[in-house]
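Here we describe the complex-level prediction in full. Unlike the single-chain runs in Section 2.1, the four entities below were treated as one system.
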Amino acid sequence: MEELTKKQKAILDYMKAHVSEHSYWPSIRDIQAKFRFASTNAVFGHLQALERKGVLQRIPGAARAYKVAPEATVDLSETVIRYEGPDENSLEVSNIPLMGSIAAGFPDYTESSGVLASIQAPISEGSRRRPPQSFALRVRGDSMIDANINDGDTVIIEPGVPKHGDIVAALIDGETTLKRLIKQSSKIYLKAENKNYPELYPANELVIQGIAKSVVRPI
Amino acid sequence: MEELTKKQKAILDYMKAHVSEHSYWPSIRDIQAKFRFASTNAVFGHLQALERKGVLQRIPGAARAYKVAPEATVDLSETVIRYEGPDENSLEVSNIPLMGSIAAGFPDYTESSGVLASIQAPISEGSRRRPPQSFALRVRGDSMIDANINDGDTVIIEPGVPKHGDIVAALIDGETTLKRLIKQSSKIYLKAENKNYPELYPANELVIQGIAKSVVRPI
DNA sequence: ATTGACAGTGAACAAAGTTTCATAGAACAT
DNA sequence: ATGTTCTATGAAACTTTGTTCACTGTCAAT
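The structure predicted for the assembly as a whole is:
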């Protein structure tokens, strides 16, 4: 995953802040004014870049309509293995949005079965401590069946810094995939839990969307 | 606060649901399509009414830009369970409360920690259809392991009339147990899904709390 | 030197979206 | 009977907004 440039990150941050403050997205011209661009096309280019890098989705033709990837860019070289787990005694199944299908790359709610629906929470940083913004992803495919996560299941993802051995939702080539995170001699790998797919995916730069905390399986 | 008419409330609910699902507001034409209006002006009038009644704020001229009054605010960090009933236009929301723990084990596996929390009241009492009052129960014991429901899992229960083969939460001797419901020649049995346990519990009088719809398993 | 990615200007277009105008039936209270 | 409010149609005007095209400059790597 490519890194965001400073300006791209600034624009993305501004957009998120705008949503947080106003409850609706800024227009391209709003962004233009904010950053003192002389042309809307400057913004346009940045938005294209943000979309290409997988952190923003635009809805073509629609005004003030965006989705942001529920990601937290994690620098895995930092060894901050601190995790505040969810309160084990109070599992709240209610506060979990279904973000979409996990191989689909982007939140898309068309297939929501009506069991859990959906919120994409605009990420508002800068606020003080807040609970981790969990979300749910529907699993497609069989790459994790040895971890007892099957096609059609829904996994609950929590943002956070993953440890070795955690099952994580990671953005690979713009697609969200579910893999086990392997740290081996200062290298990072992603591993499918299916003996038919034995390979490790080397991963230098990763966008971790979060750590899989639980599986929801329809009966 | 003036009362909202049914249609006004439906439109407001739809807008909130749209934000929840897509992370951006619907356009007037989106609403028009949803409610099958022949004119955008129908929507326009409703939006004016919503604004006059103080539950919605429009940003004049701006596309897909609204704010909702605090009473009508959708907490974007909170998720809703959506029930899609026959009335498409009135969306109901409710949360799933965690009711307590359930005994999936043998009858002598009793350690009643069965303090059940109170169920949440239905949200919109004025409507005809009410959403099923789902709730969650933590599983204790191993009587359902052959159905892949294990100790520590959480099951989502929905009230309703169970069919043959459904896994139900039933009250037996004052304790909630999880069993598969078997209807055999006009008789009713409850069956543990563990081959080490006796197969059938005859049940003449049953209190069914609901049908297990999904399992949540921590990773 | 040249290529290619990145960042930007400036102008213009077309679609999307909001708003206004004219009109009308139904329900309801005066 | 009569006016008012609510709801709705249908068409049109108008603004906002996303998108495209042509062009310029910078910086780093080939």
